[in-house]
Amino acid sequence: MTVRAIAVVSAGLSQPSSTRLLADQLATATRDELVGRGEQVELHHVELREYAHDIVNHLLTGFAPDALRQVLDQVTGADGLIAVTPIFNASYSGLFKSFFDLLDADALGGRPVLIGATGGTARHSLALEHALRPMFAYLRSVVTPTAVFAASEDWSGGTAEGALRSRITRAAGELAEQVHRAAPSSGPADPFALGTDFERLLRGGNS
Questions:
Q1: What is the rounded CA–CA span in Å between residue 10 and residue 38?
Q2: 158: which residues sit within 8 A by CB, 6+ positions away?
Q3: pTM recorded for the entire structure
Q4: pLDDT of 44-68, one tens digit each?
């Protein structure tokens, strides 16, 4: 049985966080969909608030502390990604953008991604389409057709019901289908991997 790794990145700043709550519900629904397709699933949750200082240090120095490096490897080496951010001033949070700015432009190429966001009112939902989807398109990810936005009014007693539950189920099904169809991930790209066939060069060939 194939083991699939799903990275779940949430950029909520408060505790408890509705952004983390939405990420958890998307992760659980995706896991259930994949299990229904005969897959084993490992969920790797990443709360960016825990790495905020490391993210800034990496932006300033160009080097990732060990803890942040492990997180970056989990994200770039996963079979699928769930990315959820709070919406501030009609776009993703600065912490969310800063984290994905650390990735190589090819690190998520072809990777299935489910995008989600939270905000005070439904007016913020368009940020999924004019901010998040273009960013992951630039990274050449395969973004699911259904994106999930949850406003404060969508939560009832800390659970997702009604229309929000339907969106979560549909989006999770789309991500699970993409992950199920793809070959298992070979892990994060090795930045020190040799790009040149030295044995061939020694024989007089081209790289």
A1: 27
A2: 21
A3: 0.88
A4: 999 999 999 999 999 999 999 999 9
Residues 160-186 as b or e (16 or more Cβ within 10 Å = b): beeebeebbbebbbbbbebbbeeeeee
Q: Are 92 and 177 in contact (CB under 8 A)?
A: no
For the stretch 71-93, pLDDT in tens is 999 999 999 999 999 999 999 99
Structure tokens at 63: 């080097």
End-to-end CA distance of the chain: 38
Question: How far apart are the C-alpha atoms of 109 and 129, rounded to whole Å?
Answer: 19
In the chain, beta strands by DSSP E: 3-10, 40-47, 80-88, 91-92, 112-119, 142-143, 148-151, 155-156, 159-160
Token pair, residue 103, equals 């990735």
